[in-house]
Specification:
Layout lengths: L13 H13 L2 E2 H8 L3 H13 L3 E5 L7 E5 L1 H6 L4 H6 L2
């Protein structure tokens, strides 16, 4: 299950796929923002983010508005592999 070298988004649970889609559509969010958008529990979102980070799809960064929180976003490799979205394409700097 977890820990295989070839694990991909397709191998993850539905909650992780939902978190991926939330980040894809909304861009960078805090864990609280992901919980609100996905309507998943905080614990489920934490687990999903761990799994996504484990396979290198999501990056964690400091949320400067509140340093107690982290900001999660799809990394550039994941966005490029998925084809990106119009929102990502129009707003990339």
């Amino acid at each position: 299950m977890a820990g295989t070298d070839e694990e991909s988004l397709d191998d993850l649970p539905p909650s992780a796929k939902l978190v991926f889609k939330v980040l894809q559509y909304n861009g960078p969010l805090t864990q609280k923002g992901i919980v609100e958008e996905s309507m998943l529990s905080a614990r489920t979102v934490r687990y999903a983010l761990e799994r996504l980070e484990g396979i290198g799809i999501v990056d964690e960064d400091v949320y400067f508005a509140d340093a107690r929180q982290n900001l999660y976003q799809l990394n550039e490799v994941a966005a490029a592999a998925d084809g990106g979205t119009e929102k990502e394409a129009c707003c990339a700097e």
